[in-house]
Amino acid sequence: MLESVGALTGSPWIYAVIAVSILLDVFLPVLPSGVLVITAATAAAGSATATGAVPRSVPDILALVLCAATASVLGDLVAYRLAWRGGDRLDRVIARSRRLTRAQERLGEVLARGGGVLVVVARFAPAGRSVVSLGAGAAHRRVRDFLPWSVLAGLAWAGYSVALGYFGGQWLGATWLATAVSVGALFVAGAGAAYLVRRPAMRGQETGA
């Protein structure tokens, strides 16, 4: 598979596949978009190491970051707009989920204060992007409050994922070991992000008890 992805890295198809995967995983968080980004970056790093064409690999890596970040922001906006127009039906769905309700309330608080670090942190957490984008839309938060943080989150996530794959490929070669180590680091970041997202809510419950 790595060889196939490596061959696609030099063509526009790899970017199209990655973009579609990232666009859709805001609705289907089970899609392995992060794994795909890392695998493509690992293959690109292995190709550059084998051929010595490091300068040529740099635009490919930058294009991969921009592709992943752009698709992430577009997916966020699609979910945001759909949730904005969802009306009472979506409100009822959110009300039935304690997790979505807490996320929506907390997101409203941080955006109202002019902060949006939660949007960035949640991008790394499993399903965090979905919760934040849908919550912001359902709560009718202003797009100018949400969009800049979505852009920052997309760039941070894309840059981190590509860097993991690229440097893993540089150090360990374009092998499954490099991909596995890089994916493991992505999962560790996701677990840490999930903990940070939940921690303030847990504190609030303890304070209110």
Automatic annotation (TrEMBL):
In this chain the VTT domain maps to 49-166
Q: Where are the transmembrane segments?
A: 12-28, 61-83, 146-168, 174-197
Q: Superkingdom of this entry's organism?
A: Bacteria
**How does the record say this protein sits in the membrane?**
Multi-pass membrane protein
Kindly list the places in or outside the cell where this protein is found, as annotated in its UniProt entry.
Cell membrane
Q: Which InterPro entries match?
A: DedA-like (IPR032818), VTT_dom (IPR032816)
Task: Spell out the GO cellular component terms annotated for this protein, sorted alphabetically and separated by semicolons.
Answer: plasma membrane
Q: Which keywords does the record carry?
A: Cell membrane, Membrane, Transmembrane, Transmembrane helix
User: Which Pfam family name is an example for this entry?
Assistant: VTT_dom
Protein's UniProt keywords contain Electron transport: no
- Family, similarity comment: Belongs to the DedA family.
Please state what the protein is called: VTT domain-containing protein
